[in-house]
Amino acid sequence: MKIDLHTHSSVSDGTDTPTQLMAKAAAAGLAAIALCDHDTFDGLDEAAQAAAAAGVELIRGIEISAELGGQSVHLLGYGCRAADDQLLAELARVRAGRTERIPTMLQRLAEAGMPVPKEVLARHIAGSPSVGRPHLADAMVELGYVADRREAFDGWLADDRPIFVPRYSVPLRPALELIRAAGGAAVIAHPWGRQSREVLSEEVLTGLAGSGLLDGVEVDHQDHDQATRDELRELAGTLGLLATGSSDYHGLGKVNHELACNTTAEGVYRELRYRIDERGGMA
Known about the structure:
- This protein is of the alpha/beta class.
- The protein has helices at residues 18-27, 44-54, 85-100, 102-111, 118-125, 133-142, 149-157, 172-181, 196-199, 202-211, 226-239, 266-279; strands at residues 2-7, 30-35, 57-68, 71-78, 170-171, 185-188, 216-220, 242-245.
- Strands 1, 2, 3, 4, 5, 6, 7 and 8 form an eight-stranded mixed beta sheet that branches.
């Protein structure tokens, strides 16, 4: 049973619609898939209909923009009730922060000699409720300023680059509490990828596991080399956390993240679903 627990659609910063994504999941031989768009549930109803037609089991997910000590943490919530008022209010606050920083980022791009007309950016946003830097990156690619999203982030848009503008993210502990209150299960995405290991140290993960609010960590991910995966899997076992695996698929928006390039063991998936069911999630 092939299971991919972290994918994105064009409702956030992927390039496939939810319907296209579910068709590709079936073609890739996936039995189950989680759609985890950034800070929005808006693609899940379409995905559920398409998944049923494609014969794929869908787990309703979300990737919440969280932070710890001022540093970004990507938090996956599985099975959260999408009508939970507190969670919806916090997600709306995050999305507002995403949108409100765009004018300043456009101004900085123009000052750097890379003006992005609003109509070009709008074409890439394409009605997404969760506006992100990848949309800016895609506009920069179209205009010939960079070759791809990676070059846009590495040179200009990443947290320590000239165009970056900070925005609101949910503090990690309250984000975990929101997921639990909405009946969901919480897994930290790629915790030791990029610069995250300094933020999500072994000590921090131990404390989060001890809180009872964290269900797992994403171990098998393209941002983790084999040594990191082995160490993180051992730590997860010691702490009683579920160890998941995922592609973090974004369609054409992210290279080397093909569907099912990393997968989750069936036993881990069943335990995750059991916890969601016990908490009254996925309504």
